[in-house]
Amino acid sequence: MTSPVDSLLTRIRQLQDELEEEFRQQRERFRYSFRNGRVVFEAEMKARHRELRVRLWAFLRQARPMVILTAPVIYSLILPFVLLDLFVTIYQRVCFPVYGIERVRRADFIRVDRHHLAYLNGLQKLNCIYCGYCNGLIGYVQEVAGRTEAYWCPIKHAARVGAHHAYYAQFVDYGDAERFAEGLEESRRAITKPGLSGIRPGSGSGNAEG
Predict the structure, then answer these.
(1) Higher pLDDT, 68 or 145
(2) Distance of alpha carbon 42 from alpha carbon 33, whole angstroms
(3) Is residue 22 part of a domain?
(4) Is the predicted pLDDT of residue 156 greater than 70, yes or no?
(5) What is the per-residue DSSP string for 123-162?
(6) Which long-range contacts (CB under 8 A, 24 or more apart) does 194-198 make?
């Protein structure tokens, strides 16, 4: 019998498929395609983009002074982001093979492609590179953290969570002590690949880390 959670997850996947179809139609509308992983616009559309580009000096003149003054604060965050990227990548490369968890492909989350748009000036392109990297990195880190949580502590929180990763919906309910050991076993089986783990699913099931 299908549980309400499974039905909701199926519906979510269906909506994601519908969203991808909508994106495909938008690609046709804006006349671009993918060639060897790179976005290519039709020549006429690319020329139109160049006409719509706001020159850098005009762009800066339109910006409020306080916005310009806050720019160093925004860009200073690149340092902790790069360190986070480095440490999370090292973490999953060292630990995931031990747990038997398949490593997260960083390239599936960090997309830096908006700087190819001809209607953006140089500063806008730099901003888009920065945003693409940082926001993609957050998604990458969340996926690594989600798989880790699914292995060690697959228990829902008592209070509502503002945003959660893809594995959270199948976690054991908060306070369901009877099903915790079984739910931990199921969550580990779902997140691990047979033959990769040096730890048997279920080993240490009474000693999960939250």
Answers:
(1) 145
(2) 8
(3) no
(4) yes
(5) HHHHHHHHHHHHHHHHHHHHHHHHHHHHHH--B--SSPPS
(6) 194/100, 195/100, 196/97, 196/100, 196/101, 196/102, 197/98, 197/99, 197/100, 197/101, 198/97, 198/98, 198/99, 198/100
- pLDDT at site 104: 95
What is the pTM assigned to this prediction? Answer: 0.78
Continuous segment of H or E residues that includes residue 29? helix 4-29
Domain boundaries, position 86: 63-191
Residues 65-89, mean pLDDT to the nearest whole number: 95
For residue 198, tell me if it sits in a domain.
no
The whole-angstrom separation of Cα 188 and Cα 127 is 39
Q: Which residue has the higher pLDDT, 126 or 34?
A: 126
Q: Token match 């594995």: residue?
A: 167
The answer as to whether 140 is a domain residue is yes
Estimate to the nearest angstrom the gap between the alpha carbon of 155 and the chain centroid: 21
Residue 39 covered by a domain: no
CA distance 105 to 58: 40
Q: How many domains does the chain have?
A: 1
Residue range 177-192: mean pLDDT, rounded? 93
Cβ–Cβ under 8 Å, residues 198 and 98: yes
Count of beta carbons in the 10 Å neighbourhood of residue 84: 15
Sign of CA dihedral 14, 15, 16, 18: positive
